[in-house]
Amino acid sequence: MRMSKLYMPTLREVPSEAELPSHKLLLRAGMIRKLVSGIYSYLPLGYRVIRKVENIVREEMNNVDSQELLMSAIQPSELWKQSGRWQDFGPEMFRLRDRNDREFCLGPTHEEIFTDIIRHEVKSYKQLPLSLYQIQTKYRDEKRPRFGLMRCREFIMKDAYTFDRDEEGMERAYFEMWKAYEKIFTRCGLDFKVVEGDSGAMGGSDSHEFIAMSEVGETQIAYCPKCDYAATDEKAVCSYDIHEEIGEELEKERVHTPSIKTIDNLVEFFDIGPDKFVKTLIFKVKDEVVAVCIPGNRELNEVKLVKILGVPEHELELADETIIKEATGANVGFAGPMALREKVRLLVDSRVTRMKNFVIGANETDYHIKNANYGRDFKGEVVEDLLLVQEGDKCPKCDSILKMDRGNEVGNIFQLGTKYSQALNATYLDENGKEQIMFMGSHGVGVSRTVAAIIEQYHDDNGIIWPLSVAPYHVIITVVNTKKEEQIQLGERLYKELNSRGIEVILDDRNERAGVKFKDAELIGIPIRITVGKKANEDTVEFVVRGKDERLEISSKEAFDKIKNEFEKQGLIF
Ligand SMILES: [Zn+2]
Q: Does a cis peptide bond (omega within 30 degrees of 0) precede residue 129?
């Protein structure tokens, strides 16, 4: 590709809405453009990277005998109603109607559609196991689309579905995918961790997430430095400290706490630690009001809460002022578990039951209650664990201290069991002619998000630093002065030779200052730069690997060897 012809609308300024490095750099490097919130166009350089990642995914899927096909993004509501997810998916689903008023959605995922195809065509045990995948555009109407390609409303995903005769087969397919995913993300150059995940809207039993590490990642994970335990914070549990506070239950006391509402203010006012408070959080769940008591120094895990309540996540909302006033009889900030309105359902984290003489809201504006005790002063439905794990909690497997880290989910694998095959009646006849339900798995890779996750790990102040495996082009030849015939000639010769060897090359033949050319090359992150300058007539070029300080003056022949070296270093074939 000649730079003079390349459509690469780079930006000098960092767009103000972009927070993450990947978002800023994809926009600045002219790789994507926003159409509307959470929906992007992939421009030529960006789309080349997408295709690179897709091809890595494709090769590794084919290696485990998964077969590629392509399904429609438009899906009829009937199938979703059969699986029960038409409601469960809630406002995240893009819905539409055709001219005959038939309901459809833009597929957020494809379990129903794959199951539908298979149930009509696969009848015998001899046709199983089966593994199918597609690389396709998905739609989710995110509440807060943000971070560029990281959380979009339209995105490119690889989704694979496996169909097996029994649970054992499903597990085998699961671990095969696991291995394939490890290869995919390794080839993309990512530093990642595999962690237990919550199955959320997919249902089923076991699931794992592949998290590309990043300090500013959206997903928080807990992991054990001693054993292999690792999970997203939504899923993570910790070994329970069954420590019960000892001591006498003191007489409870109503304390005037004018306008003192937050835990921080209360800590200061009472002059005791945050672990001596119990927070009461009020939620609206459909038509029900639910109050939740947890220790003052901990955070609630909403995913654990919706599981206990048995509702989809979008139906849980923090109560507004009116509901809080009605439920507690007090202004916001003074809710407590005592004397709540009768109809309020009260859930209590089990740790609260082991605390002694703590402070709670009095359900009376400007008052708290000191020396409250569970059992004596209030009772609720005790729930084993409602808390988010935090650094310092103990590993549930080995009791070592857990650590926290952050990253972005780039892949997930689910054991679905018979959730969809049962609902949609996907059965086969076994060796004895008996009808059996299929066991399924569902396995996703966020292709566009992987591109963003790679940039999060590979960039510096000047721009992107692509690994060779996914770079839009491998080499950029920068001709310093296009008015010098010998420079143009050498640049053209190298361009031809590299192209003929299958190396993907950009020739920067623009009539621009050298500084501009170097800046652009760095911004778009081409891994290897060959600069043709003053010593062109001696067949000498400058060789630079993006992200490294070393600048070598070498012959064009040596430059070829160096390129070969770089490919080999990154495990690629020249
Ligand atoms: Zn451990």
A: yes
